[in-house]
Write a structure and sequence with these properties.
The protein is mainly alpha-helical. The chain contains 21 helices and two strands. Strands 1-2 form a two-stranded antiparallel sheet. The longest helix has 57 residues.
């Protein structure tokens, strides 16, 4: 009897552990499933963000006809959206201090969905300008939150691949949005202009994705509180998640985070190159209009832009993966080398595309190959260097803020590129909107627009390449400082 009792007591602890072990396994499985669902929906949000971003440039020609607007007027629409987006981006950093990122992402998505639908109903150019500004506000909230979400979801060694995957999937959405709008633009549906129907369709899909994000996405910081073996970095980040913080504490935390981010020299240099390096990408919104002026129809123009977008999508993923591998060998300079290579490649490709290839519909194949290879090589910077390096030079709780201020500076300053292309084309190179044939386009106007584009692409690409050079000396120090701060925070929590 005594022996049986001893045996029972010896077995009891192991039996009591079984439910605990099963519970732990269930929790881990649930976490993995939750992470997968969250990342899928986050990538869907990125798809809709890129699709919305490419929507208006894809129908510039039709919008120009509907509102009697020239290239400079269309450039101002892009300027207004980007400028408001830049000024509003720090708001995302402040909101993250007090709210779940899925809530912030859903808010921004609903905002841009509303503004996109409103553009479809506009009958005056100033109305379009107003709603494009609201669209910029929605994007300002979404993009930094998306980037910090990805930064928290991947470790240092594979973060470039994570950002590359986000860019790859997002660019696929941009392809879909651009192709859809360009193909629909030349038709009518139920007596309504096709480009307006495209805007309504995109707004509906965006609102649906926003609802799914709100309902099913779980913030990585919140997941870290339910799983005991979560990463140390996410545990430290939990300290900033305050569901009931006062307005005064939010402002104080925001101001402290702002000062901490702005004084990081790596941030300053990447923002400087970003301001310059974003100019060519902002100018590229005129590509669709340029191809249509050459004489390509809507479907051909959509195909050419799709090839460029596919190249960019593949390039961003490839660049992020290459940078991850190179950073294992050259931890302090591998990402910088990749970024400089990518920026430099923009110079010969811009010159060849806009200056060397004959501007004729017979050059379709040459345009196709050039655009694909161009996209494949000039799209590395964000995923290979900028976004992963930002995540390594500030504490975890400042990540959204650093992405927000990057968008603030880059977006507000680079937004001048689009109207500058229009002004250069019209005032310097002789573009005349009245000479454009709605069907056949206009060769002289295409040439004038290409000269304006080249001015805003080749030179900024070269300057962007040079701007990365100081990071060879500064990045290592800033990363070590950030790790030291994180280590001290961890010691204080123990």
């Amino acid at each position: 009897m005594h022996i049986r009792t001893q045996r029972h007591s010896a077995l009891s602890p192991s039996k009591s552990r079984i439910p605990s072990f099963k519970h732990s396994q269930i929790m881990k499985t649930t976490q993995i499933f939750g992470v997968s669902i969250s990342l899928i929906l986050i990538n869907l949000a990125a798809i809709m963000e890129k699709a919305d971003e490419n929507l208006l440039p894809s129908v510039y020609k039709e919008v120009s006809e509907a509102f009697n607007a020239g290239p400079s007027d269309l450039g101002y629409l892009t300027f207004i959206r980007n400028f408001v987006q830049g000024l509003s981006s720090p708001l995302a950093g402040m909101l993250v201090l007090n709210y779940d990122r899925p809530v912030i992402l859903a808010m921004g998505t609903f905002c841009w969905a509303l503004s996109t639908a409103a553009v479809a109903a506009c009958h005056d150019f100033m109305q379009v300008a107003f709603w494009r500004a609201i669209n910029g506000f929605g994007l300002a909230i979404v993009i930094p939150a998306l980037q910090s979400f990805i930064a928290d979801s991947y470790k240092d060694g594979v973060r470039g691949t994570g950002f590359g995957l986000l860019s790859l999937i997002g660019n696929l959405g941009g392809i879909g949005g651009g192709v859809l709008a360009t193909v629909m633009a030349g038709k009518q549906f139920w007596g309504i202009q096709g480009w307006r129907c495209a805007f309504v369709l995109m707004a509906t899909l965006s609102a649906l994705i926003g609802l799914l994000v709100l309902l099913y996405v779980v913030d990585p910081r919140k997941r870290s509180t339910t799983i005991h073996d979560a990463t140390d970095s996410l545990d430290r980040d939990e300290g900033i998640y305050k569901g009931n913080a006062s307005a005064a504490s939010i402002w104080m935390d925001s101001w402290a985070a702002t000062k901490a981010v702005i004084k990081v020299q790596t941030f300053q240099i990447i923002v400087l190159q970003g301001i310059i390096g974003s100019l060519p990408w902002t100018a590229m919104v005129f590509f669709t209009m340029w191809f249509e002026l050459i004489g390509f129809d809507n479907n051909s123009s959509a195909t050419l832009l799709s090839l460029f977008a596919i190249g960019c999508a593949m390039g961003s993923f490839m660049g992020g993966s290459i940078a991850d591998q190179l950073s294992q060998v050259y931890p302090h300079s591998g990402r910088i080398m990749c970024a400089q290579f990518s920026a430099f490649m923009g110079i010969p490709f811009s010159w060849f595309l806009l200056k060397v290839i004959p501007q004729s519909v017979s050059s379709y194949l040459t345009f196709s190959v050039t655009l694909f290879l161009m996209g494949l090589t000039i799209s590395w910077n964000g995923s290979a260097a900028n976004a992963p390096m930002f995540a390594e030079v500030v504490p975890v709780n400042h990540r959204t803020m650093i992405y927000a201020f990057d968008r603030a500076f880059e977006g507000s300053f680079s937004s001048v590129a689009a109207p500058l292309v229009g002004i250069l084309s019209e005032k310097i190179f002789g573009y005349n909107a009245k000479s454009v044939d709605p069907i056949k386009g206009s060769s002289p106007e295409a040439l004038a627009l290409s000269k304006g584009l080249l001015s805003m692409m080749a030179i900024p690409f070269g300057l962007c390449c040079l701007c990365y050079t100081p990071l060879y000396y500064i990045f290592k120090r800033d990363r070590e400082n950030a790790r030291m701060v994180a280590s001290k925070e961890q010691e204080m929590m123990i």
